[in-house]
Amino acid sequence: MNRADILRNNIIDKLLTISNKDYLSALHQLVENSSVDNDLVKLSDEQILMLKLSDKDIEAGKLISQEELDKSDLEWLKGL
Questions:
Q1: Could you say which of 22, 44, 49, 80 has the lowest number of CB atoms within 10 Å?
Q2: How far lies 54's CA from each of 40, 61, 64, in Å?
Q3: What is the residue-wise DSSP string for 30-72?
Q4: What is the rounded CA–CA span in Å between residue 30 and residue 46?
């Protein structure tokens, strides 16, 4: 994985732990207002594999609701 991928993944990991709506809204606005190249993103082999595995899970009906996921995440965070 290159440095940009590592940074992107670290940011995503941190974003997933934020629950403050005002903070998230400010981050969203910052990202929306930033200039982004229209270049295609080159996915790593690992990212492509994860997407393929996700597609297989969807086809097999291995899904949970956002509410169930949030509940599971909170339980996991309490255990830390």
A1: 80
A2: 21, 11, 13
A3: HHHHS----PPP---HHHHHHHHHHHHHHHTT----HHHHHHH
A4: 28
Report how far residue 74's alpha carbon sits from residue 66's, in angstroms, rounded to the nearest whole number. Answer: 12
Token representation of residue 9: 């993944």
Give the span between the Cα atoms of 11 and 30, in whole angstroms.
14
Which domain, by its residues, includes 45? 3-78
Tally of structural domains, the chain: 1
Contact 66, 23 (CB under 8 A): no
Smallest CA-to-CA distance from 1 within 48, 67, 58, 66 is with 48
Tokens coding 2: 């290159």
Task: Write the pLDDT tens digit of every residue in 14-71.
Answer: 999 999 999 999 999 988 888 666 667 789 999 999 999 999 999 999 999 999 999 9
